[in-house]
Design a protein that fits this description.
Blueprint: H1 3-10, H2 15-42, H3 48-75, H4 87-90, H5 105-130, H6 135-160
Helix pairs in contact: 2-3, 2-5, 3-6, 5-6
Length: 163
Amino acid sequence: MGKKGTEIVASKIDVNEVIADLNKAYADEWLAHYQYWLAAHWVSGINADAITSRLTAQSADELLHAEKFANRIMELGGAPVMDFAKLAEVGGCGYSKPPEDQGNLKQVIEDVISAERCAIDFYNRMVEKYRDKDYVTFELFKTVLLDEVGDEDEWEDLLSQQP
């Protein structure tokens, strides 16, 4: 980010705190991307095609979110988490590996819903935190929050269709 942009943010909040919050979001989005991508390639059985299709699309969305967070981190003069092994330490929502039973679609969906709800809680707090302190970061968190709320609704619908 340019000097003036950073100066404006720094006048209202510690830029390192902003970068830390953005890195937490970045880490969680990477973990969600990996969780969904892996599950999409792991699940099988009746109705797996619909779940696989949705997981693949959502995985791509989560990777795009991670990219947006990384870009904002770099605009502020920081660096996104560079060590993949540290993502779980930095993130707050964790990672749920796919169930060993490849046909347990209900568990996969419940794990996705849990991840989405965790993200919604965090992004909602971040929207409140940055509302009047850093408008660019605020808009980023708000945009991703809206995506996650929509995703939760879709996954709840898919869960209701499971036997």
